[in-house]
Amino acid sequence: MLAARRPDLVRGLVLLNATPFWAFRPPSGSAAARGLLWSALNWAGDGSVPVPESVRHLVEKYWWNQLRSPDTISAMLRLVYADKVGFDMALVARIVEATEHPGALDAFTSIVLSPKAELSFDELVDRLRCPVLLLYGKEDPWVRPLWGQRMKRRLPAATYLELSPAGHCPHHEAPAAVNRALRTWLAAEERVRAQGTGDQDPSEAGIGLDVGSSWEVVEADGRAIRVSHIDGRPRSVMEWLDLAVWSVLGRALGAIGRKGADTEESRTTA
Fold first, then answer.
1. What domain of life is recorded for the organism (predicted)?
2. Which of 42, 162, 237, 255 suits 245 as a labelling partner, its CA being 20 to 30 A distant?
């Protein structure tokens, strides 16, 4: 992430549906990556289907062709869109067309099987020094509100805007609302800079992004999307339970990490 590694080049960052869970392969070159399981996936090289060429056609026929079929894509879009009719067959056709490229299967595989970065998601987030906008669709079935709440707890100075009704693709499903959210946040940040308040949170500067404020944006098709500036606190029993569980896990994992670091330091000293 450029904003974490080169903060001198980035004045602000927008994270859309940000979540730490994506790559599951260990970082390249790590001890875990040299294990039997991951070595088996590495034999074909990054960016290609990790199966012998002699059976690749079976993968394409029985998995890839089913995955990229119009029916499967339509079902997936209905799952992730809050507006179940918010997409049309023209969008489905464009997605299918992209999958017909000779390199489409390898490109898709390289995303699904890409290794983790050297720095974890949380480590990158902790390095951020620029203003951050967290933008989430409230009805996203994959990146549910609790993920946004976790990010807000990790970045308490970030602005957290939630769109509703909106699912996993708010930039396509509710483009007017997303654009309004971006423009509002950017204008607030520019006014903070103009006032010479440095890194002050726009919500603390009293310039129109107060926590708890919300507004409606009417999309081209007449749908009203509410944009809400929220504080990230849990709002349901499940979200409170998630907070409790992850608080315990965070302390446990932190203790394990410190123990591992102490052990490594002891070995180095010895």
1. Eukaryota
2. 162
Residue ranges for the chain with pLDDT beneath 50:
43-46, 202-207, 256-270
Per-residue pLDDT, 245 = 82
Per DSSP, the residues of the chain read -HHHH-GGG-S-EEEES--S-S--BPPTTSTGGGSHHHHHHHTT-TTS-SS-HHHHHHHIIIIIHHHTSHHHHHHHHHHH-SSTTSS-HHHHHHHHHHHTSTTHHHHHHHHHTPBPPSS-HHHHHHT--S-EEEEEETT-SSS-HHHHHHHHHHSTTSEEEEEES--S-HHHHSHHHHHHHHHHHHHHHHHHHHTT-TT--GGGTTSS--TT-EEEEE-TTS-EEEEEE------SHHHHHHHHHHHHHHHHHHHHHHHHHHHHHHHHH-
The gap from C-alpha 79 to its chain's centroid, in whole angstroms, comes to 17
Q: Write down the H helix ranges in 28-165.
A: 36-42, 53-59, 65-67, 70-80, 89-99, 104-112, 121-126, 145-154
CB 151 within 8 Å of CB 243: no
Contact between residue 171 and residue 184 where contact means Cβ atoms under 8 Å apart: no
